[in-house]
Amino acid sequence: MSRLSKIVFLLTPLILLLLFGVYRSKARPENEIDAALRIARQRRHFLMVEFGADWCGDCRALAATLATPDLQEYFKQHFDLLKVDVGQFDRNVDLAKSVGVDINQGIPTAVFFAPDGKRIGATNQGELASSSLLGPDQIQTFLRAIVEQYRVTKPR
Known about the structure:
By secondary structure, the protein is α+β, with helices and mostly antiparallel strands. The chain has helices at about 5-20, 30-45, 55-65, 70-80, 95-100, 135-150; strands at about 45-50, 80-85, 110-115, 120.
């Protein structure tokens, strides 16, 4: 594969995210969390509920990293993902609080639930807020700690 082809291959998910956005305003996202938890339990997956916004560069960077081929396969094998729009920190703030998420430390912020539906923890210390500085290996190590140890750690 030529160098240009590799660059295009790696940038395509980011370009699509920029064009189409990933956070949609939903009428009742709390109902979506309940539904996502039910589906994740049926699939025996972890649930990642990510609070972010289309304007957020780190939110787009995290989405692009999760879409890289190696990480995407691991993520799809273990996780379901629900994205919740926080707008300009004026949407779904009460919903974030209700699941123990503090968006004031930066976005993206996520809460994780085990396959049995129990809450594992959230990235309330800004663990994902600098996602544009994290590579796929760091994100995968972070996700492995959730899957293998049922705990949220700082990506390394």
